Amino acid sequence: MKPAEIRKTTDERIKLATEETVLARQFDMGVGHQGRLHSHTWYQLMYASRGLLNVSFEDQFMVVPPQKAIWLPPHCEHKTFAPSGAEFRSLYFRPDKVESLGQQAKVFTVSPLIRELILAVATRCDTGSVWQESDERLLMVLLDQLLSQPANQLSLLMPKDIRVQGLVTSLEADPCDDTTLKDWANTLGLSSRTLSRIFLAETGIGFKEWRQKVRLLHSLSLLEQGQSVTQVALEVGYQSTSAFSYAFQQVFHVPPKSYFR
C-alpha cells in the first residue's frame, strides 16, 4: 500500500480503483475488537490468519476460524467481533470479475494452499506497484481454488420476529441457559406451539436444535482461546464432555480437541 493510501478507508480506495481487480486490507484486531455495521460495493473475502472472527450480517451469524474464510456479496451489511483478537486479512474483488463465486454469503474451507494464496495476494496488493502477469495468474489460481470449495456449516439463521428477540439476546450472551421451550413461551407471553412455529419458519430448525447450534458455535471461540474440552462443555451448557464431543463431531466432523490443530 502506498503511504498516501494508508489513511484511506476501504470504500475510498474502492471508489478510486480504476484498473485494479482486487484490493486488500490487513491489520491486527485487538482482543474484543468490535467493528461497526457496514457494507461494500465489491465482493469481500474475509479471513483471519490467526484468531477467530464472529461475523453478523442480515439474518445470519457466522463463526470464522483460521481454517475458514467468509465470502460476502456487494452491499451485504455486516459487522465483525474478534473475542480473542485476530490477524485480519481481507480481499475485495471488483464485481464483474468474480460473479462465478456467487451472490450468496458462504464460508469456505481454507486449505494450506488457499491460505498461502490469500496471504500472497494480500501482500502483493499492499506493495502499491503495478501488477505483472504472474500476479494475475496467482489471483486466478486463488479464485479457481475457492470455486472448487463447498460451502460449510458454520452459520446460523437468527429469528427476526420481534417477539423472540429477548430469547435470542439472552442465549447469545449465555448459551448454557437451559430454560425450556415451555418456560420461554410463558416468559414471552406466547404459546409453546407459536414459539416453535416462529423458529421453524425463520431458521428452518426447531428451538432445541437452534440452541444447540448456538452452543456449538460459541464453543469454537472458547476452544480457540485454549480452554479444555471439559471446561468448554460445561460453559456452553452440556452435562458431560462425551455429550458435547458427540454433538460437536456431528456438526463439524472432527473431535473438539482436534478442531484447531
TrEMBL record:
Alphabetic keyword roster: DNA-binding, Transcription, Transcription regulation
Protein name (record): Helix-turn-helix transcriptional regulator
Entry-linked PANTHER family: HTH-TYPE TRANSCRIPTIONAL REGULATOR NIMR, TRANSCRIPTIONAL REGULATOR-RELATED
CDD domains reported in the protein's UniProt record: cupin_NimR-like_N (cd06124)
Residue ranges of domain HTH araC/xylS-type in the record: 165-261
InterPro entries: AraC-bd, Homeodomain-like_sf, HTH_AraC, RmlC-like_jellyroll, RmlC_Cupin_sf
Source taxon at top rank: Bacteria
